[in-house]
Amino acid sequence: MRVSAAAIFISQAWECLRWHTKINNVLLDPQRFGRILEWFYGTSLQEIYTSKMAEGAIVAADNLMGVLCLGAAVATVFISSKFRFWKWFIYLGTGVLCLICLAEFYDKNFRIGQLLEYSARLSAPLFLVTSTRIHNSNHFILLMKIAIGITFIGHGLFAVGYYPQPGHFVDMMIKGFGMQEELAKFLLIGFGVLDFLFAIAIFIPSITKPALFYGIAWGFATALARITTNFHFEFFENSLEQYLHEFMIRTPHFVLPLVLLISGKKVDTTLFQSRGTGE
To answer: Is the overall model pTM greater than 0.90, yes or no?
Structure first.
């Protein structure tokens, strides 16, 4: 959990400091927030576009969010039951994650599936904070199941075509498995159905364990595909620079199922030992 939370904040900090977030698309939208900028600067949005006013404000905002995420990443290393004050840095970082996710949700035309996909990313740092106080409680495990289940449902909605299948989904299937486009789209539908089944199966005790193994494997594969399907050895550094953070920010997709699997084993062992003592 600690590694996953740190990876989320480091990757988000890298995106903020090295590239750009979707915040700029939101602020410069002429239909909504762009009008606020016109009022604030007292000039037309076209003038703002062609000047450095908006660009400077957006870069400053991205840099600030990047620094806050770096602070949160440091906090994930040191937070413990004895040093819980680090939680405030994690809360700030999670607030930044929420803002960026809302901006991406806005940029994707308010598709609920997009918002659902962020469930694991946003909750993993909070689970880390909670784990310094609570260990393996039923409510804690239930919340983790809900978070990862919602994430897989969001992913599945795009895969099955409820929303238009994202081009990069199809490209990853084509590049990763060397198949034709039509077959890639068909298999994506199948994987989307499996995502829905996974979200149900993790709540059924008799099949939770195999479902979690699937979640670990598929979550890791889809995260790693962000690198492998866009990687070019002749541009090694550039490939990592552009896509490593895409993998890191998706680590909760396989780490949360892994934590659930390990937590389940600990609970089973505790129950077994308790029964043995009672006898």
So the answer is: no
Q: What is the DSSP letter of 28?
A: T
Residues 6+ apart with CB under 8 A from 156: 191, 192, 193, 194, 195, 196, 199
Give the Cα separation of 77 and 72 in Å (integer). Answer: 9
- Cα distance between the two ends of the chain: 35
Domain count, the chain: 2
Over residues 225-251, the pLDDT tens digits come to 889 888 777 777 888 888 999 999 999
Which residues are CB-neighbours of 160 under 8 A, at least 6 positions away? 188, 189, 192, 193, 196
- Please state at what angle helix 119-131 crosses helix 53-78, rounded to 10 degrees: 40
- SS (HEC) of 110-138: CCHHHHHHCHHHHHHHHHHHHHCCCCCCH
Whether 95 and 147 map to the same domain: the answer is no
Same domain, 66 and 170: no
Query: Which structural domain, as residue segments, surrounds residue 18?
Result: 1-111
